[in-house]
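Hey, weird one. I pasted the Thiol:disulfide interchange protein sequence into the form twice and got a warning about non-standard characters only the second time. First submission, copied straight from the form history:
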Amino acid sequence: MLKKWLLALCASALTFQAIAADVAAPAGAETIVRQAVLGLAKVKIESIKPSPLPGFYQVIASGQLVYVSADGKYMMTGNLIDLASKKDISDAGWAEFRKAELAKVPAADRIVFAPAKPLHTVTVFTDVNCGYCRALHEHVADFNKAGIALEYIAWPREGVNSTAGNPTPTYTEMVSVWCAADRKAAFTAAKSGKKPKDATCANPVKDEFELGVRLGVTGTPTIVAEDGSVLGGYMTPEQLLKALDKRNKAAGG
């Protein structure tokens, strides 16, 4: 369903270097990096910033994070590890980007299940039909009892449109949920296997699916902490609380 643009890297390596060599020398490093990446594949570049790795820029494009040399000649994929601190620089880069992008999603576009005074808040990219998504939502009261607020964002695994160009069944169902008079009730009913009443309205489902793609989401559920880091897929309330407390402790919270 989703094409990984990095698959073009192996087939285009020689072409990529040739394109990079033709980039005008007077241009700034970011411009060189941008043109080199766009010369490799048709992608939407979300972020270009200097990398902790000297001479390289961190580029986030179409759900991928790569490192490109300032002269546009080399690209590296994979995680960048700081051996001194033993920290994953790539994960930190992703987390910063996710946090900034998720902050742009209005509360009105999410379906929120929260206790009165949450200790933690997580964003969950979800599909109403996936088994693990349903299993997670079965324990929503237990998550809230543990002080965890769940803020759901729509991510129909089938995508928005089929190969024939028609809306996928899951997308249509999730639009109906997001357009229901009582979203939370329709959401919970859909998670239990009850089809929602057909409804349409101005809704964020397509935008939220595309947001997930940009953030590197590949499956559901995907749980994202407030700092933008991905905690995992399905987790029990106990597992999630432990992971959140551990992350807060590591951050000095």
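That's the output from the first submission. The warning seems to come from a hidden character in my clipboard, not from the data itself. The two ends are 40 Å apart (CA to CA).
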